[in-house]
Design goal:
With about 725 residues, the chain is α/β, with parallel strands linked by helices. The protein has 4 domains: about 15-195; about 235-325, no CATH class; about 330-545, P-loop containing nucleotide triphosphate hydrolases (Rossmann fold, 3-Layer(aba) Sandwich), CATH 3.40.50.300; about 590-705, Winged helix-like DNA-binding domain superfamily/Winged helix DNA-binding domain (Arc Repressor Mutant, subunit A). It contains 24 helices and 21 strands. Strands 4, 5, 6, 10 and 11 form a 5-stranded mixed sheet that branches. Strands 13-14-17-12-18 form a 5-stranded parallel sheet. Helix 1 (about 5-35) runs antiparallel to helix 2 (about 60-70) and helix 14 (about 440-450) runs parallel beside helix 15 (about 485-490).
Length: about 725
């Protein structure tokens, strides 16, 4: 495009902007003249808000407002929300005690969709007292009923009397329950910037300035409004020590406190107060404590928050909490059973317990692999967690996903790890990592090891240094091929446990999938919704359920069995794959904590106050599943048959593995002290030929360990 053409386009755009500004100026002026015609005296408050920044301006005449906004302050209208006080002020202040008179009654009606907006507008047409003015606020409707004469506010009683009409209209129309006469409403001719990416015009839908009323016309809607001061003394000194501890542990609470919640639609100071109150109610703070915290909050109104405002905010948070229907685990199971074929009823428990276990404060993260054959529903189950708080869902990983040497782009950090401090990583297919080139796979596994330990440091040749500390849990789906990758065990070591999912009825699984054909969108919405609702009932930081010493001892003993059975036996990579050396068994300290965390998560999901013997069946399965599957089959075979001595071929036939593979498994178990080995018939080496087969049985030491535990019991 040539410079001349660009100049023509720019002129056209300027003319269009000027026309829009003139139209907005006229519309705004007409609106304000109608609103304040019954109140020629007092100050008109204009309040401009951008995130937590607030600017207040006061004018004597409506014409001054429009002229100043669309000339001197026109450059602010593109990124500031503009509000006005419907009731004039005695002084240049915005509190309710500064209201001088009331010339209009009003109602604020929220609309969550265009369909609801149309229904609301239709109901307004049928309302027995038609509004004088109807405004589209962008995400709702504002209604005004003009009074023939202003009602002067000379006392507290007079103020409460008029508020009774405003409250009554709100109740009759299902509007916003906030009926403070000093509240500000959106000004027509400006933009609703609640979502800056999609600004919406605030415009007049209907204006009849000659449609005026007397207060007595609204008598049937009047309700009594009492003065409701907040009884607890409000001062920052009242903030309990528990809040400061929770503030450091809960990143969502801290981001709200500091005003760094980009996910909040309402970025105003009152929006942050509401978000903070919602979180504090879930933590069980009292009204007085919440009031003190809100007064001290740097992101909200702080010391400008009046007692009635605090009472309304806290009350709204408590009402919202009480309205939420309690979702129990049975509700979740029922919903999943409706859509998915799940013969293993514990699978949902494991998934939800893993998320909850990673919310247990001041505890190490829990890492769990769900191992199932391809198309075994694990992906569908894991994807239901995408919308849950603190979950970071990953479809794939590269060596540069967690840590990148690139500089931030447009202020956005390119390294995932530096954008999150705590939560849980959910990966639908860990197999995509296993199938990578060895170098890439090794680098990612090394990164995961550091992340599991809660600390990661790396320097790049560009001079960039990365230092991260945090807590990230891990829940990933994998196929049984994971057992073939020794590198996973060698690098991640004792940092994970496994839950294996078997689907014996493959026909039933396929039939359910066919029944859901073309309903996947509905299914995923319902499944993710119930999972989110269930998990949202728990805080971001949960106390670890306790348990008695007997249960703890059982968990430790289970960890000992797993540690012994899954320890890596190093072999030569080629040739006859000779065993290099006899390894030391894994120390079960970390594994004990992993099992306890899982048990704690299960107790939370089940609604139990402490961990009891109820977790044994699942922990027993986890103990077997966390062993390499081939070893678990051999151990189970020996335990169930109680054979004394048996040849390699016999074991191979029982577990359906080749004889050579079975011999390798038995040799590994022998090195680990789990099975004993001898020549057939108990012969010594001198009397045996080169082809004399070996015989095996469980070692007495390992049998003693199993007999004390519910490991392999049915």
């Amino acid at each position: 495009m040539c410079p001349k053409s660009e100049e023509i386009v720019e002129k056209k755009e300027n003319i269009q902007t000027l026309r829009q500004s003139c139209h907005s100026n006229t519309e705004t002026c007409q609106f304000l003249n109608a609103i304040f015609s019954a109140n020629p005296s007092g100050f008109i408050e204009i309040r401009m808000i951008r995130k937590k920044e607030v600017r207040q301006f006061f004018y004597r005449k409506p014409s001054q407002v429009a002229k100043d906004l669309f000339t001197n302050k026109a450059h602010l209208l593109s990124n500031w929300d503009v509000y006005f006080g419907a009731c004039p002020r005695k002084e240049k202040r915005g509190s309710e005690k500064d209201i001088s008179s009331v010339g209009t009654l009003f109602a604020d009606i929220d609309c969550v969709s265009d369909e609801e907006r149309e229904k609301r507008l239709a109901s307004l047409k049928r309302f027995e007292i038609s509004p004088s003015i109807i405004i589209s606020s962008g995400h709702g409707i504002h209604c005004y009923w003009l009074l023939r004469r202003g009602y002067g506010i000379k006392s507290k009683e007079g103020l409460l009397h008029v508020k009774g009409y405003v409250k009554g209209l709100a109740l009759a129309l299902g509007g916003d329950k906030t009926f403070d006469l000093s509240r500000v409403l959106r000004l027509p001719g400006t933009k609703n910037l609640k979502n800056p990416q999609h600004p919406l015009p605030v415009r007049v839908l209907e204006m009849n300035p000659d449609r005026n009323y007397d207060l007595k016309d609204f008598q049937k809607f009047w309700v009594k409004v009492e003065d409701t001061p907040l009884t607890p003394k409000i001062s920052p000194e009242d903030i309990p020590d528990r809040f400061w501890r929770v503030l450091e542990e809960d990143h969502r609470l801290k981001d709200t406190w500091e005003g760094r919640r980009d996910d909040l639609d309402d970025q105003t100071r009152s929006g942050y107060d509401m978000a903070l109150a919602n979180l504090l109610v879930r933590y069980g703070f009292t009204d007085g404590e919440i009031a003190s915290i809100l007064r001290a909050s740097p992101s909200g109104k702080g010391t400008d928050a009046m007692p009635q405002y605090l009472a309304l905010t806290i009350g709204k948070a408590r009402r919202g909490q009480s309205k939420r229907k309690l979702v129990i685990l049975d509700d979740v199971r029922e919903t999943f059973d409706k859509w998915l074929y799940l013969p293993d009823s514990n699978l949902i428990d494991i998934v939800l317990a893993t998320v909850l276990a990673n919310r247990i404060r001041q505890a190490d993260p829990l890492w769990v692999f769900l191992v199932a054959p391809p198309s075994g529903t694990k992906t569908e189950i894991l994807r239901t967690l995408q919308e849950c708080e603190g979950v970071y869902y990953l479809s794939s990983l590269t060596p540069h996903t967690f840590i990148s040497g690139k500089v931030p782009i447009a202020g956005q950090e390119t390294s995932l790890l530096l954008r999150i401090k705590e939560g849980i990583l959910v990966m639908k297919d860990f197999g995509s990592i296993l199938e990578m080139r060895r170098d890439d796979r090794g680098e990612i596994l090394a990164q995961l090891r550091e992340i599991a330990d809660g600390k990661y440091d790396k320097s790049f040749g560009s001079g960039k240094e990365v230092h991260w500390e945090g807590k990230l849990g891990f829940l990933a789906g994998a196929t049984p091929i994971i057992d073939d990758y020794l590198s996973v065990k060698q690098v991640l070591g004792e940092r994970f446990i496994i839950y294996r999912v078997s689907h014996e009825d493959k026909v039933g699984l396929a039939m359910r999938a066919l029944n859901n054909l073309s309903k996947e969108k509905e299914m995923r919405k319902e499944l993710s919704g119930i999972a989110k609702r269930f998990l949202s009932q728990f805080g971001s930081h949960i106390e670890l359920p306790g348990c008695n010493d007997e249960v703890k001892m059982t968990i430790v003993s289970l960890a000992l069995v797993i540690a012994r059975a899954r320890s890596t036996v190093p072999r030569e990579r080629f040739g006859d794959r000779m065993i290099k050396y006899v390894p030391e068994a894994e120390v079960p300290a970390r594994l004990s904590k992993q099992l306890y965390l899982l048990a704690g998560g299960l107790a939370l999901a089940w609604g139990d106050k402490e961990v009891t013997e109820r977790v044994y069946p699942i922990l027993r399965k986890v103990a077997l599943d966390t062993m390499p599957s081939q070893r678990a089959k051999v151990i189970t075979y020996f335990w169930e048959t109680q054979v004394e001595w048996v040849r390699t071929k016999t074991v191979a036939r029982a577990i359906r593995y080749p004889t050579t593979t079975t011999r390798y498994i038995l040799e590994d178990l022998n090195v680990l002290g789990i099975v004993d080995q001898r020549l057939e018939g108990g012969r010594d080496d001198k009397g045996a030929g080169q082809t004399t087969p070996y015989e095996w049985h469980l070692s007495q030491e390992f049998m003693d360990m199993l007999e004390k535990l519910p490991v392999l019991e049915s």
